[in-house]
Amino acid sequence: MKPSLFFGYELRQWNDHRHAVAGPEKTIIDYLYLHTEIEGPADFESLRWNKVEISARLSMEKLDAYLNHVGSRALNSRIHHFKSYLYADT
Fold it and tell me: Based on the structure, what is the number of domains in the chain?
């Protein structure tokens, strides 16, 4: 991954080690950045993600800011499909 993509995490101490832990928005960005096989809302159904839990924990403003920072058209398309999946039943 490009060094410019190393953002959206916090350092946490556990025992004698520090670990970088991504927030929920960065986790989604990273997953969809790396999983190029996801092409539409139907692909999210096969992942069986908990829409209610994701919606409760995710800041769409932060997700959009991260998406703009990455600047990928392909990722933008996958995020669009992700949002369609999240809000399909609402």
Answer: 1
Amino acid at 32: L
* pLDDT tens sequence across 10-60: 999 999 999 999 999 999 999 999 999 998 888 998 999 999 999 999 999
State the Cα–Cα distance between residues 80 and 47, nearest whole angstrom: 16
Count how many Cα atoms sit within 13 Å of the Cα of residue 81 in the half-sphere of its side chain: 18
**Integer Cα distance of 69 and 72 in angstroms:** 9
* DSSP H helices in the chain: 24-34, 41-47, 51-57, 60-70, 73-86
Q: Comparing C-alpha atoms, which of 83, 77, 66 is closest to residue 30?
A: 66
Indicate the pTM of the whole model: 0.87
Return the H-helix or E-strand segment holding 20: strand 17-22
Domain residues for the domain of 10 are: 3-86
Do the Cβ atoms of 79 and 63 come closer than 8 Å?
A: yes
